[in-house]
Amino acid sequence: MTISASDWVIVFVKKYPSDLTDSQWNHIKDLFPVPKTTGRPREVDFRQIVNAIVYLIFTGCQWRFIPHDYPHWRTVYGYFRMWQKDGTWFRIHETLRSAARQKKGRNKHPTAGSMDSQSVKTTSVPSSRGFDAGKKIMGRKRHILVDTLGFIIALTVTTAGVQDRDGAKKLLKTFGIHRKKLRKVWVDGGYRGELLEWVKRKFRYCLEVILRSDDIKGFVVLPKRWVVERTFAWLNNHRRLSKDYERFTRTSETMIQIAMMRLMLRRLKPL
Asked: What global pTM score does this model have?
């Protein structure tokens, strides 16, 4: 069978499944920094940079293994770090969550949420890590607070040895403007104790503990708390997040933000 020149072109320009569609890219392209008017003109396409980063997070490959039809991996990593330092990823995540909530008919500032943690293993990459005695995992712990739709309001990554109550205090100190409408957060039994009064006194909203009944055996979906568990499942669909491969916890947090960014874009612009 012979292959015509036109067939070769189709194979070459075929997109990866993780690439953003035109509508998805048009929705966020204005949120990236504009090129400087002085100096050497920019030669790379921001859309290809973002596609390469999303490809890495979704497939779990290493930076050096980014396909050659994306920009060079050093260029991709350079923009990833630059947008991490200047807060671009954070601003895009916040903008998309507000838009996704409003599309569902909700106020952009959530009034209720659910909080939990997830311990994940780390690799041999030199990094900060600890041992979670409850889960028997050596690695890191992801603390997240989500709204009732499952979108992340705040997150922080610590070593796995940090207790849920201590991680919750660090998490709740990180987010600002969204706190003004928050009234209730559902949590599990690991957050009981003085944390309940501390949150009520310091932030003026309450943590409501939802416990599993001792009479129920096997898996059961707990009211309110299942939302945050679903968010962890969403994150686990991204192979780069199946373990914590990053040297720094801040990089881990940014990877989670980009994964959620991709998910919310698919909600806002399915095609």
From this structure: 0.89
